[in-house]
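Batch job 17 of 40 flagged for manual review because the log was empty.
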Amino acid sequence: MEFHSKPNTFVGHVNIKVQDLNRSLTFYQEILGFQVLEQTEKMAKLTTDGKTSVLSIEQPENVVPQYGKTTGLYHFALLLPKRSDLAEIVHHFMEIGLRYGSSDHLVSEALYLADPDGNGIEIYIDREPSEWTWSNGEVAMTVDPLNFEDLLSEGRPQSWKGLPAGTVMGHIHLHVSELKKTEEFYTKGLGFEVVNRYGNQALFISTGKYHHQIALNTWAGVGAPTPPLNSVGLESFTIVLADEVARNNVIAQLKNIGVAVTEENGSLVSYDPSGNRIYLGI
């Protein structure tokens, strides 16, 4: 998981909003296999190793269902340590009769599903970086059928015991309202590099030559509005920077392109051009 450790910049935590915390806790514990690290009446921090949280879920006051065609979460992506872990969760989904999508992206093998509120989730395993194909600074990715026969040869039925301790937040994929200012924000501001362009509809960005720590698309429509604060969807996500020096450099870069960084409850926060809230962690 060297791509998800310092000095690379990566997504360390995602916070999503749901309509019914108890319903969501049942899903995230029994279907996905998270454990609860901390919980209040309206919020829960979820963990796979019993020590750190990679995902939080919260129930806002006067919460409303997810709005269509807005900016915000397309999906968050959980990266499993081993291919056998992916095979075992496929067996688990088959045993409980859960419907899901799947894809082979060349760089990774992935499953797709949604929580009870429609928040998008990817669960995936990376292929070895030596198998990725790079050309002119861009990594080759595609959407091919997943070879389930080969994958399931790696795992055993009834062997699933929840998400393994080494699971990390692999990446986040966002709906944005446009790509020009968005690219400037994430590259000149936050310091990511574009590693793949999907026509004029999506960007995949990373540090350390990963296939992507963040993806950005306009599939909800160019000019898509920001959803209401009390709607289901993305509350925020945290990027982890190498150290205080790196964070100060990012703050200066953001200010240089006219983007504000503010302090909220002791944390530093910025917003991309589409209103997605980002915590600047170290």
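Reviewer: the log was empty due to a logging misconfiguration, but the result itself is present. The chain has one domain: 2-281. Unflagging and moving on to job 18.
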